[in-house]
Amino acid sequence: MSFVQPNRLTFVRKSAAIFFPVTGTYTVPYSGLYRICAVGGGGSGAAIFTTTTGGAASGGSGGTFGCGDFWIAAGTVLTITPGAGGAGVSSSGSGTGVAGNNGVDTTVTGTDISITAPKGLAGAFTTTNTATATGGAAGSAATGVMISKVGGAGGNATHNTNGSEGGGGGA
């Protein structure tokens, strides 16, 4: 991307991507235009223990993506907190199920910057015949950014007698 820095006539074109897999801080080395993107942690799917009567487990939803361009001064400290995906679950008791876990919001904060990319939601289960285990609902929009794409809803699963159905995860 090209831009003119304030009070300068030169054009600058630079590009770099930095990935932050764990919580930490980043000190901005140069004043300039920065693109910051974040994705919330996805929700995990539910689990069902297959029995003679069966059950159904739905998928968790995907986390929200948010992205924006910001003019940031050199020396600004950004705090990055990446959201983890929902912990996986298992069911080991006959005729039982376990709901999935929600993911965690991802946040980026600094002077005049406050970005939140919301988490994905957990999947559900059912052992009731003909009932539907509803997938994790699509989340909410990211805040503090220009572009936001809500994560996809988890797939539903309907229990049919003596079956063991599952729904897919959100994207």
Walk me through this protein's architecture.
With 171 residues, the chain is mainly β. 0% of the residues lie in helices and 34% in strands. It has no helices and 16 strands. The strands form six sheets. It has a four-stranded antiparallel beta sheet, with no helix packed on it. It is elongated.
Largest sheet: number of strands, sense, barrel closure:
4 strands, antiparallel
Report the helical percentage.
Answer: under 10%
> What percent strand?
25-35%
Q: Kindly report the average pLDDT value.
A: 84
Sequence stretches where pLDDT stays below 50 over 5 or more residues: 1-11
Strand order across the biggest sheet? 3-8-10-11
Strand count = 16
**Total number of helical segments?**
0
Using the CA coordinates, give the radius of gyration: 21 Å
Q: Which term fits the overall shape?
A: elongated
Distance between the termini: 28 Å
Give the class from helix and strand content and strand pairing.
Answer: mainly beta
